[in-house]
Specification:
Elements (H helix, E strand, L loop, with lengths): L4 H11 L14 H20 L20 H11 L2 H13 L10 H6 L4 H10 L8 H27 L2 E7 L9 H7 L4 E2 L4 E2 L6 E5 L5 E8 L5 H14 L5 E8 L3 E3 L7 H7 L8 H11 L6 E7 L7 H14 L2 E6 L11 H9 L3 E3 L3 H11 L2
Parallel strand pairs: 5-6, 5-8, 8-9, 9-10
Antiparallel strand pairs: 1-4, 2-3, 6-7
Helix pairs in contact: 2-3, 3-4, 4-6, 6-7, 7-9, 7-10, 7-14, 9-10, 11-12
């Protein structure tokens, strides 16, 4: 406690109505009172989960200016708190405090801020939610998917619809700007005194279109820790289906294998179908993917996993060796946690690398560039 009025107000907001006797809200202005009600609506549930019962008395009793509902709480919190704080609060509301009223109708669900963190939380608990909330869950996930697709799709299109060649192009496009050639072409214009390079000639590179088809098999671990990776994998697969000369197979696995290639164009349906949880059998999944390979030299098998194998390690490694020897390109995309930090079994990743699988921990945007490089 700082001993100041400002410090007392801050502690009151932290401690909530259970501090009524020592830190009353009588000194709050209208905005602070609204913050107090909004925080209490959500975080009093922490006490309730521990068996505490609130008894209306003193400053915390009686009738609130207006009874908060999930919808009014959502609207109020979005206005009272910074965007990052509000996004964290809504994730906690759904994931920690089971505030399922937020998903009960389309209007309320549509009011949620679509973020990857919220969508991941919903995917993680979807199996425990009442079926009546499925529409609200789908609304949030669909909005989140749309936002991610807008951000990621241009990177896939740029990386995969054509690769730069050494041929000079007279088509002036920022995406085709060749800064190395431009610098070389203007070295004679360098002024040492001013340390400046005068650009008189600007060079661009051309792009060659692929005409030969590629098969991309996206094999995704859907064990309990993989919610975020499953979401991004489904989105990346859906984007790949829109690109010319690329055929996509999408496979989800835990201890069993599910081929959802027929849903690959619809990532929302994939995510609403995914059954997160359970164990991990990479060996089974890779064996199934091996059966899908028709033209090894033009096939990419992308394994998205934390590499924590629960099945036969020797069988998994043998399959990787066979696929590599056949000429297939093997990519291992390591799981990222909610902070986009790598979270995977490094020792197992090293063993996969030794058998010919390239392993990296990348965001979807960098995965697009990686695919573009191996399919060039």
């Amino acid at each position: 406690m700082t001993g100041t009025a400002e410090g007392a107000r801050r502690w009151r907001l932290v401690l909530g109505r259970y501090a009524n006797s020592n830190l009353p809200t009588s000194g709050f202005d209208a905005r602070e009172a609204a913050i107090e009600r909004t925080l209490s609506y959500l975080y009093d549930r922490e006490y309730q989960q521990r068996g505490h019962r609130h008894r209306a008395e003193g400053a915390g009793g009686g009738l609130d200016p207006s009874a908060l509902t999930a919808l009014s709480w959502l609207g109020g919190a979005g206005k009272l708190f910074p965007k990052a704080t509000f996004e964290r609060m809504q994730v906690q509301a759904v994931e920690r405090y089971h505030l399922t009223e937020l998903l009960a109708d389309e209007e309320t669900a549509a009011g949620l801020q679509p973020t990857p963190e919220l969508a991941t939380a919903l995917l993680s608990i979807r199996g425990r939610l009442d079926s009546s909330l499925e529409s609200g869950v789908r609304t949030v996930i669909a909005a989140t998917v749309d936002e991610i697709v807008k951000r990621v799709k241009p990177r896939f299109q740029q990386a995969l619809t054509g690769r730069r060649t050494r041929a000079r192009s007279y088509r002036r496009s920022s995406s085709d700007f060749d800064w190395r050639s431009t610098i070389r072409a203007n070295l004679a214009n360098y002024d040492p005194g001013l340390a400046r390079l005068a650009i008189e000639t600007v060079r661009f590179t051309s792009r060659s279109r692929r005409t030969l088809p590629w098969d991309v098999i996206v094999c995704v671990d859907q064990s309990g820790s993989m919610a975020s990776s499953v979401m991004y994998s489904a989105i990346c697969a859906s984007i790949l289906t829109t690109l010319p000369t690329v055929t996509v197979r999408l496979v989800l696995f835990d201890t069993s294998v599910t081929d959802v290639s027929h849903l690959a164009t619809d990532p929302v349906s994939v995510l609403m179908t995914a059954q997160l949880g359970g164990g991990t059998n990479i060996a089974n999944a890779l064996a199934y993917c091996e059966s899908l390979v028709v033209t090894p030299a033009r096939t990419v098998v992308a394994l998205i996993s934390d590499f924590e194998e629960g099945g036969s390690v020797s069988r998994m490694l043998a399959t990787v060796s066979r696929l590599k020897e056949s000429g297939a390109t093997l990519l291992g995309l390591a799981a990222l946690d909610e902070l986009a930090e790598p979270s995977f079994d490094h020792q197992m990743a090293g063993r996969l690398t030794a058998r010919g699988m390239e392993v990296a921990a990348l965001t979807p945007e960098h995965f697009a560039e990686w695919l573009g490089d191996v399919m060039a």
